[in-house]
Amino acid sequence: MARKIIPFTKPRCPGIFCEASTRILKEAAQDGVKTYVQRMEERAIQPCLFGQGGTCCRNCSFGPCMMIEDVPESIGICGATPATVAARNFCRMVACGSAAHMDHGRETALTFLAAAKGEAPFEIKDEKKLHFLAELYKVKTEGRSKEDIAIELGEKVLAEFGQQEGALVMTTRAPTKRQELWKKLGVIPRGVDREVVEIMHRTHMGTDQDYRSLIFQATRCALADGWGASMIASELQDILFGTPVPLRAVVNLGALSEDHVNIVIHGHEPQMPEAMAMVAQDPEIVAAAQEVGAKGINLAGVCCSGNEVLMRHGIAIAGSFIQQEVVLATGAIEAMVVDVQCVMQGLAEVAKCFHTELITTSSRAMIEGATHIEFDHHRALEIARDITLRAIGKFKQRRRVHIPDRKMDVVAGFSHETINHILGGAFRASYRPLNDNIINGRIRGVGAVVGCDSCWVESGRVHTTVVQELIANNVLVLVTGCAATACGREGFLRPEAAELAGPGLREVCETVGMPPVLHMGSCVDNSRILIAATEIVKEGGLGDDISQIPTAGCAPEWMSEKAIAIGQYFVASGAFVVFGRTFPTTGSKVVTDFLFREIEELYGGLWAVESEPTKMAQMMIEHIERKREALGIQEKKERILFDMAMRREL
Ligand code: MSK
Question: Could you tell which of 251, 560, 562 is best to mutate to test the pocket of ligand 1, judged by most ligand atoms within 8 Å of the CB?
Answer without folding.
Answer: 560
